[in-house]
Design brief:
Order of helices and strands: HHHHHHHHH
Number of helices: 9
Structural class: mainly alpha
Low-confidence stretches: none
Number of domains: 3
């Protein structure tokens, strides 16, 4: 009769000790330590982690009072970030409103009359379209849509095209 193999008992896997549940305040501070959040975003993330709704609003009030959460600070950093990525005022405004920033804060941080928007639109246009010449109406519409999707106003888009047409005319005359 063949010898039976004796199995050694299975090794017990070492289990990691359970992490104690984080308090609602610790969770909120952890989220805020990564990046700024609006009050609405923070409330949504805490609700998603199934914290009681009755505890969320008082906590958010405390965080605002202590200066740890600020919609104004969020709006300022968000506008800076999106502007650096080449987005225009309409898109930034819409995104801020979707994140729960009040109309007055949006108006404070997104100034449609700021000349930086024209400069930014020209920069984005030049980066995307290496050849400034617009061959057809279809191509012109495509380029306009690009700037429109980036969030620039119709007036800024028209001014951008005028600048590039002038530059093209000036370079063509000197050649």
């Amino acid at each position: 009769m063949p010898a039976k193999y004796i199995r050694s008992p299975k090794k017990q896997k070492r289990r990691k000790p359970l992490k104690p549940e984080r308090s609602i305040r610790d969770t909120a501070l952890g989220l805020l330590s990564r990046r700024e959040h609006t009050r609405l975003e923070l409330a949504g993330k805490l609700e998603a982690r199934e914290f009681p709704a009755a505890e969320i609003n008082p906590l958010l009030d405390d965080l605002q009072r202590e200066g740890l959460q600020s919609d104004a600070r969020f709006a300022e950093s968000y506008v800076y970030s999106r502007t650096r990525r080449g987005f225009g005022p309409l898109r930034i405004r819409q995104e801020l409103q979707a994140r729960g920033v009040t109309e007055s804060l949006v108006n404070t941080h997104v100034d449609f009359n700021d000349p930086q928007w024209l400069q930014l639109a020209c920069q984005e246009y030049g980066k995307k379209f290496k050849d400034p010449r617009v061959g057809s109406a279809k191509e012109r519409a495509r380029r306009m849509r690009y700037l429109q999707n980036r969030g620039f106003t119709g007036d800024i888009i028209r001014q951008t095209f005028v600048r590039f047409e002038r530059a093209e005319t000036a370079s063509g005359a000197g050649a």
